[in-house]
Batch of 2 targets.
Target 1
Amino acid sequence: MAKIGIMGGTFDPIHNAHLMLGRQAWEEYGLDEVWFMPSHTPPHKTDHLVTDTKDRCEMVKLAIAEYPYFRFSDFEISRTGNTYTAQTLQLLKEAYPEHTFFFIVGADSLYHIESWYHPELVLGHVTILAAGRECEDASCSLEEQAEYLRNKYGAAIFLLHSDTMHVSSQELRERENLGLGIGDLVPASVERYIREHGLYQHPDRKEDIL
């Protein structure tokens, strides 16, 4: 029985903080592999036009290529329509009953998870590994939030003790649009792909961003 970490998300684009979190989960909790699983149609992403699935998948493949314990998974993007984490995790358990799954999330997800589609299913299907950094606008500590979810849902939640890296995909899209450079925040192969394919270039939006 293999221990598999799941790193889900839009990855628009994937960046160094995603990789750091995956490495920390693999090292700290003895995972056999970490599967990077781009989402197909994320129901909550309504603030911007999500980049084409092919481009997002190619960037993930490039980013994880040097890590033998990272794997690309098209499990979610192969489905049609909106994809919800609760459904994906249930289908994963049915498809791979021989594996034990660990869902890797950022600290902010632990505070917002009750607003997700059927959070009781998410928290009941897998062990949660959450980035161990506090959110500035949170009303309680991360450990207090984890304990609250454990008590309410019987969830298995453990914190990851990783370094803090303040970076978001939205920030990277905006920086690239403005020509500010993102080479220190994404793998070199991902930066080259973005430049070669002209991703995140929206000249008509630069005034709005500024």
Target 2
Amino acid sequence: MVRPVLQVALDLTELSRAEKIAEEAVAGGADWIEIGTPLIKSEGMESVRRLRSIFPNKTLVADLKTSDTGALEVEMAAKAGANVVCVLAAADNAVISDALRGAALYGVEIMADMMNVKDPSARAEELAGLGVQIINAHVGIDQQMEGKDPLDLLDTLGKLPVKIAVAGGLNAKTAAAAAARGADIVIVGGTIIKAAEVQAATAAIRTALDNPNIEVAEKKSLDDQIRELLMTVSAPNVTDALYRKGAMAGLAERHVPHKMIGKAVTVQTFGGDWSKPVQAIDFCERGDILVINNDGKTDIAPWGELATRSAINRGVGGIVIDGAARDWDDIVTLDIPVFATAVQPNAGEPKGFGEINAEITCCGQTVRAGDWLIGDQSGVVVIPRERAYEVARRAVEVFKNEVRVREEIRRGGTLGSLAQLLRWEKK
């Protein structure tokens, strides 16, 4: 088998950061350098020129995702120093043909990005017939967040008389699987550019590509996948992934012996009535989170030590109370997260008012049965159940980006300079 090309996708917005990451990636074994769409949109063709000056002998890929004016955009990229220019496979054939004419004139190749193509197999054959040199089985970032797999797209393309690339959230394991399935070019972005040690991350992928294999992994349930993803991130990562939404307010009392992750069992109660909160324990599956609204009352507690011990016996993953808890001295000795807005010794009466698994408001957030929660020392964030997998995936990307920024700060940078805050202030 021919050694597959490793292409690093510089999907950043700051050229100064991209240059340093590219140098480390090349040192780790990257063959081609992609000036990613965010970088070209942010820095223009100057990003291609600068990287060409740094890497005079490397293949540069300009990921323009061209959808119109094919030859013009190819000319711009080629004159700036690109060897390969990306166009959208979904673009009209007139655009593809014009791009190919420009590519022939300037001696570059065209890579067609199959993102969002309705019939990938038929379109790939058509593009190959038009003369496109590289077909890219690409699943975009937003699609990845919803669970779409570039390896599935790669499998639909079959045998084609052109080079095949694959891209979309690949890591060492999936990159190796792509190589084993016949990919000529394996494109890796976040796993490399968000790593603390870019050179080592690149080298690990290069090693995997040179020793490809397909491992048959045990299929995990969606809930298990969501839980596994959330275990790697923090509550702040999740609220960032939700675009600053989902965080509960007012949880002043926090016992957090470990991270809390689980699906909500909701309880609406009134005036410290502890009947429904205690009954709800028996509605919980292992790992579920009890979320209790005490109707804003903090002078009477609907929850205490005995209820907490009962919840532990049931395997409950944590308790969140928009209201008071009591027996706090005992609760803080137990191995279960408990969040409350207040601590109060008074207990209410078990009258049975309220409802279990109704939609409630808790600490300013709407919570439904089956919504996901994550809680740590920073607080609690609610994730809508229908977006749980997507948000968990986005939170992991937030976490990975912070890993890289943290490393650049360790090397002497500052957050303001790395983020180029003045440049990106809203005008």
